[in-house]
Design a protein that fits this description.
Elements: H1 5-17, H2 28-36, E1 41-44, H3 51-56, H4 58-61, E2 65-69, H5 73-85, E3 90-93, H6 99-111, E4 116-119, H7 121-124, H8 127-133, E5 138-143, H9 163-169, E6 175-179, H10 184-194, E7 200-203, E8 211-212, E9 215-217, H11 221-229, E10 236-240, H12 244-256, E11 260-264, H13 270-282, E12 286-290, E13 303-308, H14 315-322, E14 332-338, H15 340-352, H16 357-375, H17 380-387, E15 407-409, H18 411-423, H19 430-438, H20 443-447, H21 464-476, E16 480-482, E17 490-492, H22 494-500, E18 507-509, H23 510-513, H24 532-549, H25 553-556, H26 559-568, H27 573-577, H28 584-603
């Protein structure tokens, strides 16, 4: 089939008239043109880059219904609400869909007015549902969060494995799969498991330049988090915790300090969990202290920070979780706290887990990548992007580039630590080696005779915790690695031997080996030239409308739109139409009250 150039013209027009956007984001137009040509597509694009538009726009400009497979009810609900606010006929079919809504869906399908139907994978795989849907012209099957189909991915969902059967049952319907995180093995897995035809694969830059990246060794995690939160008063954000108990304790502590903080984990009563999620979505300035159970269904664009009270489980999980900040493209902050206990716990979980050896090897490698990112003395963004196969220079916008991480000459410390590894034949790990170097006599050291080693006590000027920091940095710099054939043994690499012989310099991060010496650099997200009082008034109006409609505030207008209104101060509907995010439907629905607030502010 030859491409229809008129479809792209319609798509560009709809981008402005429906969404209120003046131009496509990088990468969108090229992928859309391929989708509109009828090809199958796998698109890997970072969070906030506009993946949803790839499957939302085609049914607006061409015939046929688009089925959207989405893993979470909350995600479906929010996307449907946003589409309806834009004047697009959309609905969701899942276990929470009320009978009246199901009847409206049936009517929309029969009359051909329904453009997008979000559906849970479990429901779509039912024979009666497939047989029913086959009676309507389906133009596309879109699969959101496509990495869920891959056992190599970080969020595997077995129900996704049967989606290829659905494609076949719908007679090879065009298939579009999108995800924010998929390395090369995961992409290959997605292509093999979801598609009946070979898809065209697009992998866009993983860079999120609006995110400030920072990592710190744990000293007093609660105090460190509170200090960072002081930079984000009145802003919404997520703090990820490793345990359910920790989410509740931290939320209670922050509430006692006057913050609107709520816990979220899978063990909470369903009603409490849903209420806390809704509060986060609908309120400004709400902090959720959560386990990883909270996240995939969150489509809130104005999350201004994502903090980790404990180290994430892998490099992919870290990228996915920080990606929930700054989806509107405005500056957002990230901070990850980590400790040796986090690292060893995760290693133990992998080793003692029931996964096949090959999967354990992959998980261990991804954990090693994350430790490297935590301990690196290089630009965070440069290091992170390199792990996804993308080259870049120093970003100038992370804690390392900003000078918050002080580097010192670490060659002598490295030589002492490497010597300790060699003198113990690599059979002992960081805690034991740190005690040897610091000269701390323990039962294990006496039992193995390690108090007789020449290296015992050569680093009495540092604590065992400091030496553990040195050893972790040696590991992150690949001066020591775990033996591929014997994971219970450390080996010194050739690069490590060069440092040991004094042939190569080595720099240490002071904050890792001497935690707590330096307070985190203050960083405040500024709203640019926007009038703060006017912005507050616009947010108040948005909040009142959203509360009346029982919707999240960003469904009415995202922060970026209000910031632009407060900066440009449009005086007419025509002026307001030029503001980012103000399409035709929202202009006529909300234009007058927002213009009234702007006029009243000008008179004041």
């Amino acid at each position: 089939m030859s491409p229809d150039p008129a479809l792209m013209l319609k798509a560009r027009a709809a981008l402005t008239s429906v969404y209120g956007f003046s131009a496509f984001r990088p990468g969108q137009e090229e992928i859309l043109s391929v989708i509109l040509d009828g090809d199958d597509v796998l698109a890997v694009m970072p969070t906030g880059s506009g993946k949803s538009l790839l499957f939302q726009l085609p049914p607006i400009v061409r015939a046929g219904l688009t089925l959207v497979v989405s893993p979470l009810i909350a995600l479906m609900r929010d996307q449907v609400a946003q589409l309806r606010e834009l004047g697009i006929e959309a609905a969701a079919l899942n276990s929470s869909t009320e009978p009246d809504e199901r009847r409206q869906i049936a009517r929309g399908l029969k009359e051909g007015t329904l453009r997008l139907l979000y559906i849970a994978p479990e429901r779509l795989m039912r024979d009666d549902v497939i047989a029913y849907l086959k009676g309507f012209p389906i133009g596309c099957l879109a699969i959101d969060e496509a990495h869920c189909v891959s056992q190599w991915g970080h969020d595997f969902r077995p129900e996704y494995l049967r989606l290829r059967e659905v494609v076949q049952a719908l007679e090879g319907v065009q298939t579009v799969a999108v995800t924010a995180t998929a390395d090369a093995p995961t992409r290959d897995d997605i292509a093999a498991r979801l598609f009946v035809r070979k898809p065209k694969v697009f992998v866009r830059s993983f860079d999120r330049p609006n995110l400030f990246l920072a990592m710190r060794p744990k000293t007093n995690a609660t105090r460190q988090l509170i200090e960072r939160l002081d930079l984000h008063r009145g802003e919404s954000g997520i703090i990820y915790c490793a345990s359910r108990r920790r989410t509740e304790e931290l939320a209670q502590e922050l509430s006692g300090l006057g913050r609107r903080a709520l816990p979220y984990h899978a063990g909470l009563d369903h009603g409490v969990r849903a209420a806390n999620q809704d509060a986060f979505l609908r309120e400004d300035g709400c902090v959720v202290c959560a386990t990883i159970a909270f996240g995939m269904g969150i489509d809130k664009p104005d999350v201004r920070f994502v903090f980790h009270a404990d180290m994430p489980s892998s490099i992919e999980a870290y990228y996915q979780e920080i990606g929930r900040a700054g989806r509107d493209g405005l500056p957002a902050d990230t901070l990850t706290l980590y400790g040796a206990g986090d690292i060893e716990l995760r290693r133990r979980q992998i080793v003692e887990g029931g996964s096949p050896d090959e999967r354990k090897r992959v998980e261990m490698a991804k954990l090693d990548d994350l430790v490297t990112l935590c301990e690196t003395a290089r630009c965070r963004r440069q290091t992170l992007l390199g792990m996804f196969g993308e080259e870049s220079g120093p970003c100038g916008h992370c804690d390392v580039c900003k000078g918050a991480v002080r580097l010192i000459d670490g060659r002598v410390e490295a030589q002492k630590a490497l010597s300790a590894v060699l003198r113990t034949s690599g059979r002992f790990f960081f805690g034991h080696l740190a005690n040897i170097l610091a000269g701390k006599t323990t039962e294990a050291i006496e039992r193995h005779g390690h108090h007789e080693l020449k290296t015992f006590g050569v680093g009495k000027d540092r604590t065992p915790a400091g030496w553990r920091g040195v050893l972790r940095q040696l590991q992150s710099a690949k001066l020591i690695v775990r033996d591929e054939e014997d994971r219970d043994r450390l080996v010194v690499t050739e690069e490590g031997r060069k440092v040991l012989r004094g042939e190569t310099p080595f720099a240490l991060r002071e904050d890792v080996i001497a935690p707590g010496r330096k307070r985190a650099e203050r960083r405040i997200v500024e709203p640019g030239d926007a009038d703060a009082d006017l912005l507050a008034a616009l947010k108040a109006l948005r909040g009142a409308i959203a509360a009346a409609q029982k919707q999240p505030a960003y469904v009415i207008f995202p922060d970026r739109t209000l910031l632009e209104m407060a900066k440009e101060r449009p005086a007419s509907l025509d002026d307001l139409a030029s503001i980012h995010g103000v399409g035709d439907t929202k202009l006529h629905k909300y234009g007058a009250p927002f213009l009234a607030v702007i006029r009243d502010h000008a008179r004041a």
